[in-house]
Inverse folding.
């Protein structure tokens, strides 16, 4: 066989492997109580793997190249998981207990909040080395990146603010006043709005990402934790950790439509376009509830691991 | 509870639970006990938010601001008149499901070295005519920074909460089986 022919066949095999992997949407659920990540096939609910990570994993960030990054607050590290092999391929030390984690849309940079250091670590995903450590507010938690990669947002839980970081300058360019104890946050699919959950105010603040002004505030349930957007029906789904529910908010007018009963102590919540479902991790019941965004009820539930958290963007398509 | 008594005599400082006060990793603690009595009877003993003064051996007195209504605040005095005080707020009270959920708003850290404490107590049938009482907590250790001292680490938090659950559940069983 000629080298060219071999290369061609190899490329074909890789392409097939790539296709087979991307065919099924997967949820990557951090199981804080057993130091693993459950890899759940969202088309069947089957757990394909449990990846040992270590250090009470909390945050998840799925990169476009298939890698999955996990924050381990007690392990003082970020685990790098190969999305095809379902195995840890590298561990990046991050001190100060990393919690929130997000990856740039081009996959080249990782943003990690250091809870006890009041900083945002910026890590080059090729060298796995820090590029910058940016001082933010106190107890930085949820992190997300605008889809154009230009801005990064960090919820400062103990300050009641969000730090806006310019990704080119690697500096804080604005500080937005939220409600009390902001934790989870998410940028809208179109990049124009930022949703921030205020744990102690039972509310969600919505900001314009263009000029950073507050567009409005939505009332939600007891001790909200995380938020995700249903971009099809223009609604927010907010996990209420102490209400054992998910609030549904219409973006038009920020009206709360209903509160859906879910398994106890819901934390991470995410929308998957492939299955058109909302997924919410139950910390207390160690499972992943599946919500039909049309009927607005839990339609099924998949087993995860002990103390499921899944903070951040935990679904890969 | 011996430890609680010793601390009462030592004199205690009441620390408010600061909104900001916890580390990044919550602890889950679950305790259950089988009770040879029907769930209705067990719920009849423990259901009222302030009934804890009757069933928990460490609670001397309970006063609530609004009975079993959401956000009602109960003030628990431990051990004796003038003893340490814990303030707890009702989050959910559901007689149909025989459970209630509450959070601690204030506690003496020497008695209860925890932060952001959430708890639920419930009764369910055991399928044999009896009941299972479940008491669980979600909380953070007492130390709010990295590197906790031993008296404020995760083990200390679990030990304190576990001791409270064990003593309470054992007495619920005793009272319900009388």
């Amino acid at each position: 066989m000629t080298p060219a022919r071999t290369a061609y066949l190899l490329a074909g095999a890789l392409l097939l492997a790539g296709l087979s992997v991307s065919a099924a949407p997967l949820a990557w659920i951090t199981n804080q109580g057993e130091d693993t990540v459950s890899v759940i096939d969202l088309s069947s609910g089957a757990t394909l793997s449990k990846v040992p990570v270590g250090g009470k994993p909390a945050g998840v960030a799925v990169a476009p190249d298939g890698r999955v990054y996990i924050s381990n607050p007690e392990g003082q590290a970020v685990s790098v998981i190969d999305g095809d092999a379902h195995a840890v391929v590298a561990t990046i030390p991050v001190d100060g207990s990393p919690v929130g984690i997000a990856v740039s849309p081009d996959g080249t940079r990782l943003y990690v909040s250091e809870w006890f250091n009041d900083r945002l670590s910026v890590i080059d995903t090729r060298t796995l080395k820090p590029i910058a450590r940016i001082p933010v507010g106190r107890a930085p938690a949820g992190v997300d990146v605008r889809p154009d990669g230009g801005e990064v947002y960090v919820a400062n839980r103990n300050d009641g603010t969000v730090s806006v970081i310019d990704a080119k300058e690697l500096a804080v360019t604005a500080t937005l006043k939220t409600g009390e104890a902001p934790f989870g946050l998410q940028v809208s699919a179109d990049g124009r709005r930022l949703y921030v959950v205020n744990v102690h105010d039972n509310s969600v603040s919505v900001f314009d990402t263009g000029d950073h002004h507050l567009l409005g505030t939505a009332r939600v349930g007891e001790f909200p934790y995380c938020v995700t957007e249903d971009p099809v029906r223009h609604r927010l789904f907010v996990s209420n950790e102490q209400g054992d529910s998910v609030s549904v908010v219409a973006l038009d007018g920020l009206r709360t439509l209903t509160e859906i009963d879910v398994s106890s102590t819901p934390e991470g919540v995410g929308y998957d376009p492939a299955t058109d479902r909302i997924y919410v991790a139950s910390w207390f019941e160690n499972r992943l509830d599946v919500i039909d965004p049309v009927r607005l009820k839990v339609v099924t539930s998949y087993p995860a691991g002990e103390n499921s958290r899944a903070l951040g963007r935990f679904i890969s398509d | 509870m011996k430890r609680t008594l010793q601390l009462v005599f030592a004199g205690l400082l009441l620390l408010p639970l600061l909104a900001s006060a916890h580390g990044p990793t919550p602890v889950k603690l679950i305790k259950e006990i089988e009770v040879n009595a029907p769930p209705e009877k067990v719920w009849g003993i423990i259901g009222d938010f302030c009934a804890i003064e009757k069933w928990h051996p460490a609670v001397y007195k309970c006063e609530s601001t609004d009975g079993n209504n959401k956000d009602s605040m109960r003030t628990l005095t431990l051990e004796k008149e003038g003893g340490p005080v814990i303030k707890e707020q009702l989050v959910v009270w559901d007689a149909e499901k025989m459970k209630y959920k509450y959070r601690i708003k204030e506690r003496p850290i020497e008695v209860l070295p925890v932060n952001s404490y959430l708890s639920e107590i419930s009764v369910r049938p055991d399928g044999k005519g009896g009941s299972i009482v479940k008491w669980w907590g979600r909380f953070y250790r007492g130390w709010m920074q990295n590197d906790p001292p031993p008296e404020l680490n995760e083990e200390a938090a679990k030990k304190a909460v576990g001791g409270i659950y064990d003593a309470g559940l054992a007495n619920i069983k005793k009272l319900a089986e009388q």
